[in-house]
Amino acid sequence: MSKLLDKANSKENREAFLNRISKKAGRPRHQVKEFKPLNDLPDKVLINKSNDELLEIAKENSESVNAKVIIKKKDELARFLKEYIEKIEAKKLMLPSFSDEKWENFHLKEWLNNSGAEKVDYWTNDLSRMENENLANDADIAIGFADYLIANTGTITVTVSPEQGRGFNFLPTHYLALVPKSGLVPSTRVAVENYEKRLGSKELETSAINFISGPSNSGDIEMELVVGVHGPLDCTYLVVEDM
Hints:
Layout: H1 2-8, H2 11-25, H3 41-44, H4 51-64, E1 67-72, H5 74-87, E2 92-96, H6 100-105, E3 119-123, H7 129-138, E4 141-145, E5 148-150, E6 155-159, E7 174-180, E8 184-185, H8 188-200, E9 209-212, E10 217-219, E11 225-227, E12 234-240
Parallel strand pairs: 1-12, 2-3, 2-4, 4-7, 5-8, 7-12
Antiparallel strand pairs: 5-6, 6-9, 10-11
């Protein structure tokens, strides 16, 4: 079977196939012209803005997609998260199963044992996909990590990993993402270029990258906006100022 597939996908077979289509269509084959961008605007989006200016722009654009931006320092995170969990009355918490070192980088290692939630579950590679998704679906809130916050769209990016799977961000009732301020970028172009470099150097390996612009928004024919139908009811970006 593999030999048949190799033959079917060979260059000679493709050329013969395209030639037959060209003949039947009654027009000659042609090469697609090299793409030339009309301008360099994508490369210039917000490039002259400082990090503080980008943060203000990110806050404004995040609010426009119903996401909330909160800014805290590392030493403030544990107290804030505990108070936040109590405020929204979350009983079941979902966390990614990253190493203690990653949590310690955010000064949250001790918080793991004193989060304020009655039940804490972890998305882990030791469980099946269905088991992880069932736990996430049952969680009141998921608190995880994002790589970048894109200022001009109010979007966070999250790489899928065995510790923080694809459904981690979408299934719980509430979602909060920790984003280092150093991960603030002006545009999608910059975020994608950063990912290309990291993937190319093997620094990063992932099966998918999620671009999340606030909670899900659905509208009907009467132009009524409904938030949270296809995902969490709300989405919070917690920017860590000193990272």
